[in-house]
Amino acid sequence: MKEKILYLFLICILSPVSAKAPVWLTDTEKAYSQKNYITAVGEGENRHEAETDAVNYISLYFQTKTDIHCEAVREYNETAAIFAKSQSLTEHSVISSDAEFFCIHFTDPYFDEREKKFTVLAYIDRAEAAAVYGVKIDENMNDIHTILSCAEKQPEILYAAVAYKNAEIIAAVTGELIHNAVLVNPSSREKYLTDEKLLSSVPSLLDAEKNAMTFCVKSVSYDDRQITDTISSVLEKDGFSNSPDKYIYIVFYDLVFREEKHDTAAFVYPTLKISIQNKQKKVIESYSKVYEKCGHLNLEGAYTRAVMKITDDINKNFLSIYRSDGRN
């Protein structure tokens, strides 16, 4: 009998059972008023599942996906070739289709013995989150102002487009941050009106620069219509203007094939070099790629496969020449 009593006593002190449901569960408004907090209750078979469930619900408040991203800090480097001096700007926010939300805290879990489940409350302190958003928004806006200033002073249109493109990326993220900042603190709406006006103007600045950047495409040696058309199409789809007669830039491409013949098969080893030159014949940007061998029963088939591989690469990667996330 003593052993049984001792056993029951140990169960009581070691079990995560709460004798009484916490106030945050029975009267959430009293514990965490909606005026000062954003809250959501989550349930699960363990603490982790309960916290994840709570975050899923709290994310609905921000109308975003449920993935939680750690803050990503990515360097945006403006090279000396683009601007008069080299400088480094930090992009302070996650580049993602998901809006960010910060300062999520959790209560200690409550275990319901009858339901055999854990319950936890996720909460965001509105004042704390508003302060965090404010810092991140200010940092991003400073970066955008710096980039736009550099772009306005840049005489080379393509380089200005590079800057405006990066400003557009940061502007999209900053717009999401402002949206969430206003959600946690509605009274801050007026505070961000000027910032939002500037952010909304960035895409049109980029479009104007692209429209001014007229180009034509020419081959250096091996002239292939598919390659020419693919380069032109990629640039046009991104907003640049193809103008064979009134161009500012010439996009030269050079294709080199090394052939290898065997009794039963043939192979070619393709190399592509693309350079963008201004009217002063200065190379503004370049792109190059050495491809793996392409084989077929005959050389004609090998060349066909090689061109298909090259056009696919151009479609996927050529525009990296003017984007900060993959400059060559």
Task: Give a description of the structure.
With 328 residues, this protein is of the alpha+beta class. It has 9 helices and 12 strands. The strands form 3 sheets. Strands 7, 8, 9, 10, 11 and 12 form a 6-stranded mixed β-sheet that branches. Strands 1, 4, 5 and 6 form a 4-stranded antiparallel β-sheet that branches. It has a two-stranded antiparallel sheet with strand order 2-3. α8 (225-237) links the parallel β7 (214-219) and β8 (241-242). α5 packs antiparallel against α6 and α6 (157-184) packs antiparallel against α7 (193-212).
Q: How much is the radius of gyration in Å? A: 29 Å
Helix content: 40-55%
Share of β-strand residues: 15-25%
- What string gives the helices and strands in order? HHHEHEEEEEHHHEHEEEEEH
- Describe the largest sheet: 6 strands, mixed
Q: Report the average pLDDT across residues.
A: 79
Distance between the termini: 79 Å
Q: Structural class of the secondary structure composition?
A: alpha+beta
Query: How many β-strands, per DSSP?
Result: 12
Looking at the structure, what is the overall shape?
elongated
**Tally of alpha and pi helices:** 9
Q: Give me the oligomer status.
A: single chain
Low-pLDDT residue spans: 4-15, 65-99, 324-328
